[in-house]
C-alpha cells in the first residue's frame, strides 16, 4: 500500500514539475506551437496543462487517438517523434509525443508538442510547383482531437476504412473481426465504456460487441502480408 502511494506521489511530482515547462516551450516557438501535458491515468480528462491552440484542447480535455494507442501499448510504448498528422479542420501538424515514466519504468503520461506547419507545407508545394518538382509525400492521416473522449472514439469508428463505404450489416465476419482488431490496436478499448459506445455507434448489442472483441483478440487476421488492412 505504501509503495503504491509513493508511486502515485512520484507521478504527481513529475507532472507538477513539467507543468511550467509547457508554457515555456510554447512561448519559445510562438503561436504556431501547442504543448500538451497528459496524465494517462485519466483518459477521459487526460490534459493536465496546455499552452497554445493548434488542436483546440483545453485543460481537463480528453486524450486523442495517439494517446489511446500509447495507452493500449502500455509500458512497451515508445516515443513517437516528428510525425505528421492532420486535424479534422485541415490543419497540418508536426508532432512529437514523449512518454512519461516513473522510476519503475511504467508509462503514466506524455508531453506532446504540436506545431502547425500548414503554411510551411503550402509554401513548399508552391515552390515545388514553380521549380517543376514531383509531387510531395503522401497525405498524412487525419487524427481526431477533442476535449470529449466520446467524440474522439466516435470519430475513430466513423473513419475506419471498413465502414467508409459500407455499413456494419454489409461486412462479413472476418471484416467485422478485423474492424474490432484494428480499433483495439488504435487504443479505443483502453478507454472506459468504449465497448458500449462502439456498440451504439455500430447499431449492435453490447453483448455482440464484447463477443467480437474477444474473438478478435484470439484469432489471427487472415489478410496476407501486403494485403489490404
TrEMBL record:
<dbReference type="InterPro" id="IPR039445">
    <property type="entry name" value="DauR-like_HTH"/>
</dbReference>
<feature type="domain" description="YheO-like">
    <location>
        <begin position="15"/>
        <end position="125"/>
    </location>
</feature>
<dbReference type="InterPro" id="IPR039446">
    <property type="entry name" value="DauR-like"/>
</dbReference>
<dbReference type="Pfam" id="PF13309">
    <property type="entry name" value="HTH_22"/>
</dbReference>
<protein>
    <submittedName>
        <fullName>DNA-binding protein</fullName>
    </submittedName>
</protein>
<keyword id="KW-0238">DNA-binding</keyword>
<dbReference type="GO" id="GO:0003677">
    <property type="term" value="F:DNA binding"/>
</dbReference>
<dbReference type="Pfam" id="PF08348">
    <property type="entry name" value="PAS_6"/>
</dbReference>
<dbReference type="InterPro" id="IPR013559">
    <property type="entry name" value="YheO"/>
</dbReference>
<feature type="domain" description="Transcriptional regulator DauR-like HTH">
    <location>
        <begin position="153"/>
        <end position="213"/>
    </location>
</feature>
Amino acid at each position: 500500500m505504501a509503495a503504491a502511494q509513493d508511486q502515485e506521489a512520484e507521478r504527481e511530482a513529475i507532472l507538477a514539475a513539467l507543468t511550467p515547462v509547457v508554457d515555456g516551450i510554447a512561448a519559445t516557438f510562438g503561436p504556431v506551437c501547442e504543448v500538451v501535458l497528459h496524465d494517462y491515468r485519466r483518459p477521459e480528462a487526460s490534459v493536465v496543462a496546455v499552452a497554445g491552440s493548434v488542436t483546440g484542447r483545453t485543460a481537463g480535455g480528453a486524450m486523442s487517438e495517439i494517446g489511446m494507442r500509447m495507452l493500449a501499448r502500455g509500458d512497451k510504448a515508445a516515443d513517437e517523434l516528428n510525425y505528421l498528422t492532420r486535424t479534422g479542420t485541415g490543419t497540418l501538424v508536426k508532432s512529437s509525443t514523449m512518454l512519461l515514466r516513473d522510476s519503475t519504468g511504467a508509462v503514466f503520461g506524455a508531453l506532446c508538442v504540436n506545431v502547425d506547419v500548414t503554411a510551411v507545407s503550402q509554401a513548399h508545394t508552391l515552390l515545388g510547383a514553380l521549380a517543376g518538382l514531383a509531387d510531395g509525400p503522401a497525405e498524412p492521416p487525419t487524427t481526431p482531437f477533442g476535449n470529449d473522449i466520446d467524440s474522439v472514439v466516435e470519430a475513430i469508428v466513423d473513419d475506419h476504412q471498413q465502414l467508409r463505404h459500407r455499413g456494419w450489416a454489409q461486412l462479413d465476419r472476418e471484416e467485422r473481426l478485423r474492424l474490432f482488431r484494428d480499433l483495439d490496436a488504435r487504443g479505443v478499448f483502453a478507454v472506459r465504456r468504449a465497448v458500449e459506445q462502439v456498440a451504439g455507434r455500430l447499431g449492435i448489442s453490447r453483448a455482440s460487441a464484447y463477443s467480437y472483441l474477444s474473438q478478435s483478440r484470439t484469432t489471427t487476421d487472415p489478410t496476407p502480408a501486403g494485403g489490404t488492412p
